[in-house]
């Protein structure tokens, strides 16, 4: 359990850089995601081939895993559109609504009651987000794209947990077929997308290519390796709620790198404290439940 939380929070630190790369890479969101999927797929293919772990999977399994990849691809498209239409701070703060959407969508998808406790934790985090964000209406389009992105992220994590829990494939095989599924789906959508949002060049420059390589290796393969491994021991809600810390890292990095006009005033610290509180409460709740379950199991075995 401790290893799962360590991997989870390491992935959050890495995730803090995803918004930064989204701003550094000058491609529009459609081409950025297409190249990210392409480069990641090629890297994973080489990794699996060299380690002799590359396996063919049944078409039925590919459809299930590929659908998860489609959800991830759509989440990326809206997330980077949010950053392009606003800034890094707004994009990542909107992404923190993922915990709220998960608290509602996970019970509906898995056929269980909505947890009032999970909703309460989410509302604490949302209040913190509101204090940091101040609901700036100058970037309405970016805010809208960010909200859609967070809902898609919640669907992705719930679906990804189902795949990880019901299939025996390793994380790298699962991620490879997710990338392939997303790449194929985006390949069908991209011509129509570029018709309405044309670009001057389809090829990235040297600097963009360098950023894309680092982005794909560390912020995609490394990030989702840690995520998939963590999801074997913790719930999708816990993962998404913990990711409310991601905007804190991204906002600080954005202020340092891009000089975004965000002052560390009382509202920022109050919002940050509420986000951290919501995460800590959820962690303590999960650990308490695990401890009670272990004690109950011990009592049952003794009797």
Record the SSE blueprint.
Blueprint (H helix, E strand, L loop, with lengths): L1 H14 L2 H7 L4 H22 L8 H27 L2 H8 L2 H13 L5 H18 L6 H27 L4 H26 L9 H25 L5 H7 L3 H12 L8 H37 L1
Helix pairs in contact: 1-10, 2-5, 3-4, 3-9, 3-10, 4-5, 4-8, 4-9, 5-8, 5-12, 6-7, 6-8, 6-11, 7-13, 8-11
What tags apply to this protein structure?
303 residues; mainly alpha; 13 helices
- Content-based structural category: mainly alpha
Radius of gyration: 19 Å
Task: Classify the beta-strand content into a percent band.
Answer: under 5%
List SSEs in N-to-C order: HHHHHHHHHHHHH
Q: How many domains make up the coordinates?
A: 1
Mean pLDDT: 82
In one word, what is the shape? globular
End-to-end distance: 26 Å
Q: State the low-pLDDT regions, or none.
A: none
Largest sheet at a glance?
none
Number of DSSP helical runs:
13
Tell me how many strands there are: 0
Helix content: over 70%
Question: How would you describe this structure to a colleague?
Answer:
The protein has 303 residues and is an all-alpha fold. It has one domain (2-302). 80% of the residues lie in helices and 0% in strands. The protein contains 13 helices and no strands. It has helices at residues 2-15, 18-24, 29-50, 59-85, 88-95, 98-110, 116-133, 140-166, 171-196, 206-230, 236-242, 246-257, 266-302. The model has no long low-confidence stretch (mean pLDDT 82).
């Amino acid at each position: 359990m401790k290893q799962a939380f360590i991997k989870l929070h390491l992935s959050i630190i890495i995730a803090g850089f995803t918004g930064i790369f989204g701003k550094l890479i000058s491609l529009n969101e459609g081409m950025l995601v297409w190249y990210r999927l392409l480069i990641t797929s090629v890297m994973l293919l080489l990794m699996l081939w060299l380690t002799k772990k590359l396996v063919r999977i049944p078409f039925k399994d590919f459809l299930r895993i590929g659908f998860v990849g489609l959800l991830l691809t759509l989440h990326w498209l809206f997330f980077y559109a949010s950053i392009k239409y606003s800034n890094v701070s707004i994009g990542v703060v909107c992404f923190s609504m993922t915990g709220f959407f998960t608290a509602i969508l996970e019970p509906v998808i898995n056929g269980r009651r909505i947890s009032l406790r999970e909703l309460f934790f989410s509302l604490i985090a949302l209040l913190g987000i509101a204090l940091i964000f101040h609901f700036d209406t100058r970037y309405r389009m970016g805010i809208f794209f960010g909200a859609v992105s967070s809902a898609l992220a919640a669907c992705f994590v719930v679906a990804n947990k189902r795949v990880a829990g019901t299939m025996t494939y390793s994380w790298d095989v699962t991620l490879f077929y997710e990338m392939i599924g997303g790449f194929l789906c985006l390949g069908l959508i991209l011509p129509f997308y570029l018709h309405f949002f044309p670009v001057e060049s389809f090829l990235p420059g040297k600097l963009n290519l360098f950023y894309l390589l680092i982005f794909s290796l560390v912020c995609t393969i490394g990030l989702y390796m840690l995520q998939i491994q963590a999801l074997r021991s913790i719930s999708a809600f816990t993962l998404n709620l913990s990711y409310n810390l991601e905007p804190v890292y991204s906002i600080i990095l954005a202020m340092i790198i891009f000089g975004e006009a965000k002052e560390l005033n009382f509202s920022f610290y109050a919002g940050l404290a509420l986000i951290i509180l919501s995460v800590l409460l959820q962690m303590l709740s999960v650990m308490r439940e695990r401890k009670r379950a272990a004690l109950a199991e011990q009592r049952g075995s003794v009797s």
